[in-house]
Every structure is written in structure tokens, then in C-alpha cells.
Amino acid sequence: MFVKKSDGLDPEDQERMRHMFGPQQIDTMVRQAIQFCWMALPPDRKNVDEVEKQIRRIVDRAIKDLREDMNAFGLGE
């Protein structure tokens, strides 16, 4: 196994990371979040509609926070 140190600034390193953590990795992480949400719900609220409601609430909050952080650090639109 080969491990390469990267400062994260090299465009080639960024492109390799983008390919390594592509859509399949995102899909896996989203599905894992859904499973964790299901496990965390109390028994009387364990249903697909409640999981969807909670996942959407959490994602919406995360996107809002991302936009706020981008603006706070001068990286916004």
C-alpha cells in the first residue's frame, strides 16, 4: 500500500480525491445516515415518513450552515 502526503493544494491531488470519494461514497454515507436515524428514533416514531422528515431537516440545516459559513469566511457567492 502506498500513502502519499498531500497539502490539499495540488490540483492533481484534489482530482484524485474527487474520484476516490465520488458519488458511490456519498451514496454510502447518505444510506448510513438514514440507518443511524432509523436506529435513533423512538419505537413509536420508527416509520419511513419520520425518517424522511428528520433526514430532510438535518440536511436542510447543514446546507443553511454551509452557506452561512461560506459567507462568514468570504467564500460565498
Structure keywords:
single chain, mainly alpha, 3 helices, 0% strand, 77 residues
Would you write up a description of this structure?
By secondary structure, the protein is an all-alpha fold. It has a domain at about 40-75. It has three helices and no strands. It has helices spanning about 10-20, 25-40, 50-70. Helix 2 crosses helix 3 (about 50-70). It is flat. The termini are far apart. The relative contact order is 0.06.
The total count of strands amounts to 0
Mean residue pLDDT: 90
Q: Give the N-terminus to C-terminus distance in angstroms.
A: 40 Å
Q: Give the helix level as a range of percent.
A: 55-70%
Q: Supply the number of helical segments.
A: 3
- Name the beta content range: under 5%
Cα-atom Rg, whole angstroms?
17 Å
Order of helices and strands: HHH
Give the low-pLDDT segments. Answer: none
Instruction: Please give the largest β-sheet.
Output: none
Structural class: mainly alpha
Shape: flat
